[in-house]
């Protein structure tokens, strides 16, 4: 589980502002703390999507030294959200016809595209077998 520390501070207009010292330009806000946290999760994923090399997360103590009294909160990098921001790449894949018919039947019933379903299935498979 990968995470980065965000600094949560209440701004002048009463909004909860969040920035990530390790990721320049990664800033967001919410009307309250819960919304700011959801927005921070999304902003973190969007900022890191497609980077060849992610920045190293600083230790909490270092982040604490950079705050003016805000809350230092770990925000987990949501891989699924990050992938939704990444650039898609076209590939040519060979699949047996009967399996392709099953895929198309299933995706049609569930309102998914063929590419979306195959990407989701591959991600799920990799998650489930990462520990193997």
Automatic annotation (TrEMBL):
<dbReference type="InterPro" id="IPR013321">
    <property type="entry name" value="Arc_rbn_hlx_hlx"/>
</dbReference>
<protein>
    <submittedName>
        <fullName>Ribbon-helix-helix protein, CopG family</fullName>
    </submittedName>
</protein>
<dbReference type="Pfam" id="PF15919">
    <property type="entry name" value="HicB_lk_antitox"/>
</dbReference>
<dbReference type="GO" id="GO:0006355">
    <property type="term" value="P:regulation of DNA-templated transcription"/>
</dbReference>
<dbReference type="InterPro" id="IPR031807">
    <property type="entry name" value="HicB-like"/>
</dbReference>
<dbReference type="InterPro" id="IPR010985">
    <property type="entry name" value="Ribbon_hlx_hlx"/>
</dbReference>
<feature type="domain" description="HicB-like antitoxin of toxin-antitoxin system">
    <location>
        <begin position="17"/>
        <end position="122"/>
    </location>
</feature>
<dbReference type="InterPro" id="IPR035069">
    <property type="entry name" value="TTHA1013/TTHA0281-like"/>
</dbReference>
